[in-house]
Design goal:
Elements lengths: L15 H9 L2 E3 L6 E5 L2 E10 L5 E9 L6 E8 L5 E8 L16 E4 L2 H5 L8 E4 L6 H11 L5 H14 L8 H5 L1
């Protein structure tokens, strides 16, 4: 990473360069905190605590996937600030429905990235920079894209854990967009 992050980032000093730096900085699984998986409504959710290599910044990686539609998923990077607030910096999504379906990218594989304007105007859970992507078309490919984009070390350990979670929640009966189209 070319940009040196300050030890603390808050509402007064957040810039797009800092947000992009938080997304890209090298991270590792924080071993002293436990991973967590739960099933809520019709989704499996999985959280992995992360910490920057310099130990100055804490994050949570979340994976959420529908137990019904395999292509309805989110892979999320949250920054945990000094006040313990969770700020969504980056998100990889599959096609999905939702509140604002006027945005055509929601029908495709896409990402959301937090903007400086989002941060400074309190929209810390709704990253506004959206981009259609072709680098992934499954949750597994999205996770690979995500861990590379977000600088997460120890990928083998993570994918082994995700496989066991997928198996534990019987996700094999899910439908894909291809199934629905046929």
């Amino acid at each position: 990473m070319d940009f040196l992050l300050p030890e603390s980032i808050d509402d007064t000093n957040a810039t797009q360069q800092m947000i992009d730096g938080l997304i890209a900085c090298r991270k590792e699984i924080e071993s002293r905190r436990k991973k967590r998986s739960i099933q809520k409504r019709q989704n499996v959710e999985f959280e992995y605590p992360l910490i920057s290599i310099d130990n100055n910044h804490r994050f949570i990686m979340k994976v959420r996937q529908s137990t019904i539609l395999a292509d309805n998923f989110s892979v999320i990077l949250c920054y945990i600030n000094k006040d313990e607030d969770s700020i969504i910096l980056f998100r990889c999504n599959g096609p999905h429905s939702g509140d604002n379906m006027a945005q055509p990218e929601h029908f495709l594989y896409h990402t959301h990235t937090l903007s400086e304007d989002d941060w400074q105007n309190g929209r810390k859970s709704y990253p506004n920079i959206r981009a259609v992507v072709t680098e992934y078309s499954t949750v597994d490919e999205a996770i690979q894209y995500f861990v590379n984009t977000c600088g997460i070390n120890d990928q083998k350990h993570f994918f082994k854990t995700w496989q066991s979670i997928e198996e534990g929640y019987e996700l094999s009966g899910q439908l894909t967009l291809e199934d629905i189209g046929n």
